[in-house]
Write a structure and sequence with these properties.
By secondary structure, the protein is an alpha+beta fold. It is about 55% helix and about 5% strand.
Length: about 325
């Protein structure tokens, strides 16, 4: 990748520090900004127009980028200019009037209730004993119990901490069985912690000091709920790796991503409670249309039950 203009680097740093964007999202945005600079080399940022944005989008489309990738690129360009243009004296955001190609909305890949039970109850496997096993069990129980994003999970502190320049963004309140989470767009919400998650966190906190020693002088590490074996705040990649290890040990025949547990949380809650607004609130969705995709999952669940139970559902054609 080429070196980005200083303003773009500052925007990415702002997203990481103040908006708590995940490393994966930031890497994608960096790539998208690089595309824009490479397609229009030598053009000053303040001279970008809507025509430049349209040309760049058309060029990426001609190179074979799919609608979802084009939409993300446009979102990155629009977000950057929205942040930078006012201070640079630009009259308007050059990406505002450009529409992204329509992206087909695929259904989230949720596990069934039975598959989640196999993953978290670990039938046929010994109960979590080592510090790593206790930590992993707590992480996965929290993901499913509260529907957190991966970045939100790793940002959790074991209690609220304000020490010098460090101030907790997300933390748990174990006695109240809830967590305060700062998610996308710096929006803060409270989510419940189920009894299984609370129990698993207590077991992990008893083991946590075995990991905490090496990060004792790092406020970020000492405040973190979940730690890696070197005593630092756990990385998203480690969570992904450990979840897939457990899924393989449990015998689940699919790749299980942390987001799969978030999807499972939403679809299972909707099946039981039928309260779309409550699910929206707990997931931290700004728009209920994002949450409504889970109603399609719920319909699939109901349709499957109908096919299995209704005496005339499985009619055979003559």
């Amino acid at each position: 990748m080429h070196t980005l203009p200083t303003a773009m680097e500052q925007w990415l740093a702002h997203l990481e520090t103040h908006q708590r964007y995940s490393g994966h999202t930031l890497q994608g945005y960096r790539q998208d900004l690089n595309h824009l600079i490479q397609i229009h080399p030598g053009i000053e940022l303040s001279n970008f127009t809507e025509s430049h944005i349209r040309q760049a989008l058309a060029r990426l489309h001609a190179q074979g980028l799919k609608p979802r990738s084009l939409a993300r690129a446009l979102a990155a360009w629009r977000g950057f200019f929205q942040w930078w243009a006012p201070g640079a004296g630009m009259e308007r955001n050059p990406a505002t009037g450009v529409r992204a190609p329509k992206v087909p909305r695929s259904l989230p890949k949720a596990l069934s209730v039975e598959q989640v039970q196999v993953l978290l109850d670990r039938p046929g496997l010994p109960a979590p004993r080592t510090p790593v096993e206790c930590r992993d069990q707590a992480m996965f129980e929290v993901l499913y119990s509260s529907g957190l994003r991966l970045a939100e999970l790793v940002s959790l502190d074991w209690r609220y901490t304000h020490d010098g320049a460090y101030k907790s963004q997300s933390w748990i309140l174990l006695e109240e069985a809830q967590a305060t989470v700062r998610g996308k767009g710096s929006k803060t919400r409270s989510v419940p912690l189920g009894s299984k998650a609370v129990e698993a966190i207590k077991h992990w906190l008893a083991e946590r000091p075995k990991f905490a020693a090496s990060g004792a002088h790092d406020t970020n590490a000492s405040a973190a709920l979940f730690l890696g074996v070197r005593g630092q705040r756990i990385s998203p990649r480690v969570v992904q790796i450990q979840l897939n290890k457990l899924a393989a040990l449990a015998g689940l025949p699919m790749h299980v991503h942390p987001h799969s547990l978030r999807h499972s949380f939403a679809s299972h809650l909707l099946q039981s409670a039928q309260d779309l607004r409550a699910v929206q609130e707990m997931l931290g969705h700004a728009n209920i249309s994002t949450t409504q995709i889970y109603t399609r999952l719920d319909f699939q669940h109901l349709a499957k039950s109908y096919d299995q139970a209704h005496p005339r559902a499985n009619r055979k054609s003559k």
